[in-house]
Amino acid sequence: MALMFPCRLGHAAACFLLLVILSCAGPAAATRPAPAHGWHSFKRLQDARRGSRVTGLGELKRYLATFGYMPAGAGAEHSGEPTDAFDEHLEAAVKRYQSRLSLPVTGSLDAATLNQIMSPRCGVEDDHGVSGVVSRFTLLKGKPKWTQRSEPIVLSYAVSPTATVSYLRHDNVSAVFRRAFDRWALVIPVSFVETDDYDAADIKVGFYKGSHGDGGSFDGPLGVLAHALPKNGRLHLDASEQWALSLGDGTATTSESIDLESVAMHEIGHVLGLGHSTSPHVVMYPSIKALQKRADLTVDDVQGVQMLYGPNPNFRLSSLHNPSMAPERTSWVVFSARLLVSAVLVILVTHL
Ligand SMILES: *[C@@H]1O[C@H](CO)[C@@H](O)[C@H](O)[C@H]1NC(C)=O
Ligand SMILES: [Zn+2]
Ligand SMILES: [Zn+2]
């Protein structure tokens, strides 16, 4: 079973780990109060803009560094600790964040932006480079993908028998992942088989608390929900969340329940090599709210994964229900602009 990983992924992963280590285990970590439940302390930053100085902006800089929006040292003074000053580095990072998450790009911490920042999300950073004008999916840095000598590719997965949460049965979690893997398998020539041999499985699913040995640290309820490391097939879920097996099936929920099936779909996307999409309606968008369900693949997700693995010959794109299919104005603007430029060129050429 061969897995191709150009070394750039290694660098990206190392950077990500370094950022996490810097932000979680820096010398100030011991003295800093523990971050409030799910980033809700950021609420007091509302309406901060360039020139503001508000307690908590330093923490926001750390957040933006963790998810790939600013270099870890930017916005810091001599101590190396990010300051509470809203400087030009922070403004640039906020604009990048807004653009990535498809929010109005204002550069200030308006209500919509803060609401998005405080939403639970995936622990994988967003900085995966840009895709085309129309498509909004991205591939992970270095374009990692699974390869095997013979097609179709068969990947094994296992749900850890020990890294579990007490209130969920192993067979129920396993059934959720079965459904999620089946959805991805429908669109690409890759199949997934469950195995009991956790150590030998290509994809290893488990629930963990806090820092758990891979550099990516979980943070209690809400905040970071999960992460996946395609390089070694690890798919980790934060054991502190209130996981709902599948929202809408009548299982008990609280106002903070997170849909396991939606998060499983998203993290499998990373295991396959996809990065975060900028479209808020698709599986690969980086954040999801409590009680929200987003487990159906959309055209954007499918086009992304098919770019890596090609299509499953039995699958028709037109069979998908599709929120991201709404006509995109920008693409028409670009198209019309191109048409205009061509027309001008033709006129110039024919009249000179
Ligand atoms: C969990 O699995 C058991 C046995 O497979 C099944 O009877 C039960 O309905 C499942 N529960 C949920 C909430 O899916
Ligand atoms: Zn993600
Ligand atoms: Zn992990």
UniProtKB/TrEMBL annotation:
Amino acids binding Ca(2+) 1: E241
All residue ranges annotated as the Peptidase metallopeptidase domain in the record: 142-311
Annotated residues for binding of Zn(2+) 2: C122, H266, H270, H276, M284
Biological processes annotated in GO: collagen catabolic process; extracellular matrix organization; proteolysis
GO cellular component: extracellular matrix
Residues reported to bind Ca(2+) 3: D219, G220, D238, E241
InterPro entries linked to this entry: M10A_MMP (IPR033739), MetalloPept_cat_dom_sf (IPR024079), Pept_M10_metallopeptidase (IPR001818), Pept_M10A (IPR021190), Peptidase_Metallo (IPR006026), Peptidoglycan-bd-like (IPR002477), PGBD-like_sf (IPR036365)
A GO MF label: zinc ion binding
Residues annotated to bind Ca(2+) 2: D202
Catalytic machinery residues: E267
Key words of the record: Calcium, Glycoprotein, Hydrolase, Metal-binding, Metalloprotease, Protease, Signal, Zinc, Zymogen
Textual note on the cofactor: Binds 2 Zn(2+) ions per subunit. Can bind about 5 Ca(2+) ions per subunit.
Cofactor dependence: Zn(2+); Ca(2+)
Ligand binding (Zn(2+) 1): H212, D214, H227, H236
Motif Cysteine switch: positions: 120-134
Pfam families assigned: Peptidase_M10 (PF00413), PG_binding_1 (PF01471)
Signal peptide (UniProt feature, chain positions): 1-30
Annotated family: Belongs to the peptidase M10A family. Matrix metalloproteinases (MMPs) subfamily.
Name of the protein this chain belongs to: Peptidase metallopeptidase domain-containing protein
Provenance organism: Lolium multiflorum (Italian ryegrass)
